[in-house]
Structures are given as structure tokens and as C-alpha cells.
Amino acid sequence: MPLENIPGLRWRLVLISLLVCGLIFELGKCLNSDVFHIYVLPPAANITVTFYHTMSLCLILPGAFFEVDLLFHTWHIKVLSRGKFRKVGETITVQAGSALELRCRGKPVQWGVPPYLEEDDDGRLKIVQHERYGVLTLINSTGADTGEYTCYPMYCKNTDCRRDYNKAVKVFVFFQDPQELFVPTSDYYEVIQMRTNWPTVLPCQVTSPEAKVTLQREFPPVEVTVDGSEISFDVKKGFTIHRPQPHHAGELFCVASLGSLRQSSTKYMLIYVNYPLAPPAPVIQASSTSLSVGGNLQVSCTVLGERDVVVEFNWEYPGQQIGRPLYTQESVTAVSQGSAQQQQSQSVLLVDEVRDVDQGTYTCTAGNLQGTKSASTTVKVVTKDKTN
């Protein structure tokens, strides 16, 4: 019996023809692209995310995709599962307990995983390099696995290989746990030092992007305003204080809520430190560059800088070699420079009844949180008869 007389077959042939035309159209668009694409299977027991470099990936048929190799121009069809694929952005959400598989085209590739998984020793994480792609597999996932997963294409010359950071591809995976809204941590209490002009991050990461998160102050008990400018929230990082000030100091914590579940994060003790813009610039001066044996010597080291910045002084001096004790006087005073208030920090080295061994170079090193700088001066000691 002719094929066209089989009931329904004619319409199936027409449908297949239309799908093939669609394949050719989509294939043409793929060939014009040379970027990474990330796709994920719809909710299922296993989630597959595929990264492609130096090739494009187009999803054509339900449950199948075309791999178009731009290097050899060969076609491959692989059926993953029934259903439609969807292109994902920077994040995906997976139910805790599911298995995750990440596939990255390249020979070879390396993987970056969240810190918790870097210390994995129970065999849940497996990385395999195949001939043309690498595969990362994670089983028995938990909320603690939440974080950023990165594929680094490797640039190799002979046996020397290095990561190509410019072509790395990243995806942030949330492992949604109905019992744990925050990524678990072993720290109940964490001290964070805030620095002037340096953003401070409170790393209260959540396991679900749908969780509502607020920032709370322990005392007085009040919700901290998050305006997106002074303080902002990123579901992948936590809260960021962009320009820390003294009033931000204190004990803070995060509160997450999702449905009927409400949980608190680790408590963060924020300590404010006025962080200088630059290392100190010491100026050294001796009371005399030439003095007689038995005279008294004072060598001052002065730093002019920002207020409320701690400056530490260290000395190197000739008498140090024979064990002469170090005697210093240190002071901090406020000074006016036009309309601006500055701080003068000073250390004075005292040498009583100088001897021949005190002749030489005196060096002062001043340091703050940004670094250290040194200044030196030379002192000559002469006998009394040579000064007459």
C-alpha cells in the first residue's frame, strides 16, 4: 500500500517537513554566534546545565538539541529528555537533594566551586574530563552547596596550561532547602572590620532567591534601612555597606522569610576603623647633626595626616648594635590646615650623653593600615677638643 494512503502519515510528513525547515533556520542563527550559551532541563530529578565555548547551542525539538561544531561543521543530535528546554541567565534554582550535572565544552577545562565544596571529602562531587568536554557532577546536594560554579577554558602550550579567565563562564546555583533559608555556616558569631572607603559585605546568603531578606540591628532592635545606595542587597552575596561610617558599627544580623518559615542568620559584629587613604609620609629631624660627646640628642619623626588614624613608629639607631635602650616620647595632636582638621603624630627619640657609638644613621619607619614609609638622617659625634 502506498505510504501516502496510510491514515495520518501524510500530515506527519508535512509536520516533519516544517520542523526541518525550522531546524535549518535556527541552525543558520547558531552559526553566526560564537559565545557561551547555558540551557537547563525543566524540573526533574536530575538537572543538566550545558556550557559551550567556541560553539553555539540551539534547542530545536522537544527533548533534543543540535550541537553545531564551528570548527569541523559537523552536526550532532542528542536526546536528553522529553519536554522543552529553556535558556537560563546568571542563576538557576535546584531542589536540595537533587543531582546536578554541569557540562563544559573544552579540552581541557577546570572548574571553580563554592568554598564548601572545595573541602568535599565524602565523594559527592565528581569531575571528569572527556575528550571534548568536562563534566561536573554533584549528588546528594544540600543548601550548603549554594554558590557560584565556574568553568575555565584552559590555554595550553606544550605541557604548560593556564586558565583563560576572560572566557570563563559562571552560573550561580541555589539549592533550595525547605528547612534552611540561609546557607549553613559553622560560625554563630562573626567579627567584621569596616574600613573607610571600602565596601563591607555581610555574607548572609540564602538558599532560595524567593526568600525575603531584611537587615536587623540587635541593639536598639530595629530594621536597618536598605536604600540601594548606602546599603544594598544582592541575593547572591548578602548585604553591602558601600561607604562605611561610624554609625554603621554594632551588632547586626539578617532575617529571611519564605512562606511560613522565618529564620535568622549568623550575628555580625561590625567594628569601624578609619582607614587612611595612603601610607604615612614621615619627616625626620635631629636637634643637631653634629654634637660633642656627652651632649643630649633628640631626633623627631613627624607625620601629618587624617584624623583618627593610628600611626605606629619604629626606630633604627646606631646604639642599637651595642644594646643601648630605646627611649621615645610619642604624641598626637589636632592641627588646622585652612578649613580642614588634620592630625599630627610624632615620635621623639631621646639619646642622653651621646658617645662615639651614637654616631651614624637614624631611621624612623611610620606605618598605618595602608602601609609603611621610612625617613633617615645622619648624626656626627665629635670629641670636645675638636669643637673648640
From TrEMBL:
Signal peptide segment: none
Record protein name field: Platelet-derived growth factor receptor-like protein
How is the quaternary structure described? Answer: Forms a complex composed of PDGFRL, TNK2 and GRB2.
Concerning PANTHER family, the annotation shows:
PLATELET-DERIVED GROWTH FACTOR RECEPTOR LIKE, PLATELET-DERIVED GROWTH FACTOR RECEPTOR-LIKE PROTEIN
Q: Which organism is it from?
A: Oryzias latipes (Japanese rice fish)
**Which Gene3D superfamilies does the UniProt record give?**
Immunoglobulins
SMART domains per the record?
Answer: IG, IGc2
Q: Where is the Ig-like domain?
A: 279-383
- One Pfam family, short name: VEGFR-1-like_Ig-like
